[in-house]
Amino acid sequence: MNIKNKQFKTFDPNPSLKYALQLLNEANISKFSLIGKLAMWVHLEDESQHQYTKDVDFAILLNDISKLEEVVSKKCKSFRYLQIGGIGIREEGISIDFIDRRLHGVQYLFSDAIANSSVKVTVDQYNIPVVSPEYLIAMKIVSGEPKDDNDLKMLLTLKNFSYEKTRAIVKKHLGPITAERLDVFARDAGILPKRGPYKYSG
Question: Does 74 lie in the same domain as 13?
């Protein structure tokens, strides 16, 4: 393949991160968490696993979406409502999804994830809470899309996370069948024995 004039996709997340934090601040929203690919970048130390992302994703509370909408409608040229619940912004150099995940009642998974964010990263003067690996895995499995299944497999290679806690989160918010689906991924990752039902080892 001749790549001399090939244009490869690039995306600098920093302008979107800063703009998102400004919007959240103006809307007086203090409870939120960084999720998606950028959260994976935080938790995956191997930079070869830091895959391309086209946007930045934040979990926010369903109760806060109206406050955010009021600010966004005044400051942004255009925005859209996300099918899964939330607001998406696409402007020049800016790509942000604020997700409340109201579809099928999964907003309670997101609200718990926000309350249990485990680490923070700093951008300029802002401290950004980041969703924990356990909740991020639960967010990935609820999607069911192949790209999120692949992300889930990478997250299961992490050394510093609790599978028992992850499974409990998935069972609580997504039900026992989804927890058993998570067990299938865990067996493939070598976390669980290849055969037999899940048994808590704690």
Answer: yes
Alpha-carbon 190 to chain mean position: 24
pTM score: 0.89
* Shared domain check, 88 and 71: yes
Q: How many Cα atoms sit within 13 Å of 125 on the Cβ side?
A: 2
**Residue 6 clears pLDDT 80, i.e. is over it:** no
Domain of residue 60 covers 8-130
Length of the chain measured in residues = 202
Contact between 25 and 78 under an 8 Å Cβ cutoff? The reply is: no
Same domain, 143 and 117: no
DSSP string, 74-135: HH-S-EEE-TTSEEEEEETTEEEEEE---GGGTHHHHHHHHHT--EEEEETTEEEEE--HHH
